[in-house]
Amino acid sequence: MKVICDRGALVESLNVIGGVVAARTPRAALTCVKLSAGPDGLSLSATDGEISLRLGTARVETSEPGEALVPADKLQQIVRESIDPTLTLHTEQDVAHITGQDSKFKVFGQPVADFPAIPQFKGDADFEVTAGELHRLIAMTIFATARENSRYAINGVLLERDKKKLVVVATDGHRLALAKGTCKPATDEAASAIVPTKALNLLLRLFDDADQTVRVKIADNQILFATDQAELSSNLVEGNFPPYKDVVPKDGDKKAALSTDLFISGVRRAALLTNEESKGVRMAFAPDGLTLRSRAPEMGEAEINVDLAEFVGEPIEIGFNPGYLLDALKVVDENQVHLEFKAPNKPGVLRTGPNFLYVIMPVNLQ
Amino acid sequence: MPIRKLSKLLINQIAAGEVIERPGSVVKELVENSLDAQATRIDVAVEDGGRQLIRISDDGHGIPPDELPLSVEPHATSKLTAAEQLAAIGTLGFRGEALASIASVSRLRITSRATADGKAAEAGAALEASGDTVGQVTPWAGAPGTVLEVRDLFLNTPARRKFLRTAPTEFGHINDTLKRIAMVHHQVAFKLSHNGKTVFDLPADQDQALRCVSLLGKDLEDELMLFEHEDLPDRGGARLWGLAGQPSIARATGKGQYLCVNGRPIKDRNLAHAVKEAYRGLMPMDRFPVAVVFIEIDPHAVDVNVHPAKAEVRFRNPSHVHGLVLSAVRQRLLGSDLTPSASLARQGGFQDSNFRGVGPGGTPQAPGAGAGLSPNVSTDAFVDFFKRMDPREKGFAYQEVRKALAAEDPSAIESDEASLMPSANDSSTQAPGASLKPQTVLQVHKSYLVTQDDDGLVIVDQHALHERVMFETLRNRVLGEGKPLESQRLLMPVIVDADADQQATLEQMQPLLEKIGVELAPIGPEAVAVHAFPSFLFDRGVEPDTFITDLVTKADAGQLDLSNPNVQESALHEVLDMMSCKAAVKAGDKMTEDELSELLAKRHEIDRSSNCPHGRPTTLRLTLKDLEKQFGRT
To answer: How many cross-chain Cβ pairs, A to B, lie less than 8 Å apart?
Structure first.
């Protein structure tokens, strides 16, 4: 195999593909990136056994088609550190030669046959969605997933499609983020899948054009995403996602609306005087405004007043982990947020428009 | 069988069964008699573990010849005349049973030359008694005082004789008994010998602390810390004095513990518990601290007439006394650097190092730190020392200063008080160990931190120290502020398997769970649902289901005593301990430089940082002296 590549394009592709490569594995082949040179260019593939990514790279001239397995980290480092505008990749047997104007690298690879077969996107997509919409749905929810929770299902993100409606949900048991969007379905059959967080994080990095179309297919315990240049496949997370519709409260009778920026600033300042054992921020909502209070023993106290654009119902005092609030406020794309509460020991709801909803459980404050 | 009145011999033998259990009890009874007779020197000679011979010689006021026959009669005593005295007993003996009981089960010979009004009688007399036969009083010439010889103990009660243990064991009991008595009566000279060999020989008029150390073992002198406490007069005005041993010298049995009430060595589970409780978290729970506790209390507040052997007493207000002992010992321990030395070599003697740990934080000690031991040191140094003391300790140490000042120059108190008192609240006083700012920290094998302080090399077990730090923080929050831990409510309850029994256990633990911020409720017969869980445990990656399961297992194993409301605090300790253990960094966790220095900084901020809540040490110190020695530089 012999190709001449544009170094800049190759660096970009390797940066993305590096995210898939398994960090620690006894299987040497999984630490490698597979190079496939054909008439239509060079494609890079990598897998960690669960998630696989195939990525085409632009501006390549193939002089000799073929395949090779090259250690991903070394290849990435060499290409990144090089100073040439183009590099020549030439492989013979299991050895790769990377040649620039003033440099020559010889890197020992692995036999191509050791690389596992990775799923291919075949046939029609179940639905299509624009990259921009998918990006929004994932970004607005993925932060709420659990990490290493024993209830595996909530370590992933739930994707649900019913006709044109696409709903993405994530929760860690303390809060739940839900974003709604639209897609172009190919079938009327509803479908749902729990996708590992790692796969979605990679997906977010694949989109460089918001208008491009992403084709999605769910089959055989796998989900596949495809764009013109890339294909990402992932095993699904097994198990049942909690019945999220049941935990979204609908009886909140104390409603507030306020500026997103003011709220962020208030919460951030109140969070300054919290610590590990006492991290809750006390929020007193009343018609004349919101008062945030925090107190860390042996450290001090804070009080911040925030104007409310609107308040309906009885005044209420409720405690929240400021981190959970900020997570959601950071992804909110409107300049006003709506809050709903029922009681200090019942979940609170944060909304922006019809497309984003965030349920957050209070902390008990004494 | 017709009912008959028991013969006098039988009555005495039955009484002897209660009072005279073994040779050790003979020693106890007779030595107490000697003490009641104001002896200043008591000599105990034992042969064959006391089976052959126990001879007690004293220089007390003796027994006049005409009273000798009466002395071996049951319920005959010179110590008690009116029933009112029973309510406030001032002598060690009072039941009038000992001599009669001993005579009934051995061959007893009493020789005595009485002293009356400071004048010794011309001559003494001797009397022999054995079983139910009492011999004639015969003239005897000897030094003023009394010599009692008990031979062939249990000669006429073969069953009792058969149950005697080996001579070394029986002698061990005698030794222990006499030690306990000698510790209290430090002004009296004691000598104990076994088969002609001297076991100990203590001079008269020994200082109290010196006497204790002589009896506990000279090698422990560096490991003992003096404590003193005086209760408020309106609360009974009990006075406490004692020595608390370093956790590192704790023993596997309670033998190193000496409890005395009003000059009477006692065994009391309540007080033993108080001492142990004070060491909670400083040593493993299966160890027993070495400690001496003397309590002086209003005789009306304690009943010694509970048991024929008088080994037990009853306090009118046991929980108050418990609290006094607990806080006095705990305060002492809190103010001390308990970091064990990594080396086994001990340097310094009693006189030059005084009590190790008296100085806060292991800082070099002022002369006179062990003031209780060497009364000759100058008061100036004494005052100087207390000025440098941790304010927390000053509270009661100040009383000591005051007393010493009063003893030396009563007029000095007024003038010195003004200069002393402000410093007692001086916030600029260095906290223990504050001068030991670590410079560089090295994490080795992702498990231990190595740093240095003024004295040498300090090695810290990261898990143990972090566990202690978390534990103290949680403890302050829950016990100090009386607030439950902050808990995060759950969107979807976590379901934990729990059968009916386990549900009942959890139900019983409800008040405890509330305090730590856990909220759960049964959901069906086989499971409970957790609705809220402490937020800091979430952050530390501790999940509710494993935590609750472990908690129930612990409770089922009887490690949490929930039945008794008095020990709720200790159950809470256990639970907080479990929480901190789960939440703390583990051995093998890589820590960043900031985390390392933060953890080490906390070492000086919290109480009891020398040991993890299980009592294992968190920190070892290798002193420069040790290093120099090891490297042959000295």
So the answer is: 66
Give the residue numbers in A contacting B (CB under 8 Å), as ranges.
148-150, 171, 173-176, 242, 247, 276-280, 297, 321, 345, 347, 359, 361-366
Residue B437 has pLDDT above 60, yes or no: no
Are A277 and B541 in contact (CB < 8 Å)? Answer: no
Kindly report the three-state secondary structure assignment for every residue of B394-429. Answer: HHHHHHHHHHHHHHHCCCHHHHHHHHHHHHHCCCCC
- Helices B391-408 and B318-334 pack at an angle, to 10 degrees, of 100
- What was the pLDDT predicted at B429? 38
pLDDT at B86: 67
Of A175, A345, A363, which is closest to B491 when you measure between CB atoms? A175
Low-confidence ranges of chain A (pLDDT < 70): 366
Q: One-letter amino acid identity for B205?
A: D
Q: Does B159 touch chain A (CB under 8 A)?
A: no
Residues B527, B548: Cα–Cα separation, whole Å? 11
**Nearest CB to A171 within list B489, B491, B539:** B491
A102-to-A86, A88, A99, B447 alpha-carbon distances in Å: 12, 12, 8, 47
Helix pair A7-18, A197-206: axis angle to 10 deg: 160
Q: Above 80 in pLDDT, residue B376?
A: no
Determine what percent of chain A is predicted with pLDDT higher than 70: 100
Burial of B481 (0-12, 13-18, 19+ CB in 10 A): exposed
pLDDT at B388: 46
Distance of CA B162 to the CA centre of its chain: 34
**Nearest residue of A to residue B517 by CA position?**
A364
Pairing of strands B239-245, B291-296: antiparallel
Cβ of residue B510 closer than 8 Å to a chain A Cβ = no
Is B489 in contact with A176 (Cβ distance < 8 A)? Answer: no
d(CA A104, CA A87): 10
In sequence order, the 6+-apart residues with CB closer than 8 A to the CB of B559 are: B574
Q: Which of A351-360, B70-79, B106-115, B297-306 has the highest mean pLDDT?
A: A351-360
Contact across the interface for A174 and B492, Cβ inside 8 Å:
no
Q: What is the mean pLDDT of residues B42-70?
A: 89
Highest mean pLDDT among A124-128, B216-220, B274-278: A124-128
Bridge partners for A363 per DSSP: A319, B488
Out of B473, B477, B486, closest to residue A363 by CB: B486
Task: Report the C-alpha gap between B130 and B165 in whole angstroms.
Answer: 23
**Total-model pTM:** 0.62
Is residue B394 scored above 50 in pLDDT? no
The whole-number pLDDT of residue B438 equals 46
Instruction: Identify which of B519, B541, B546 has the shortest CB distance to residue A148.
Output: B541
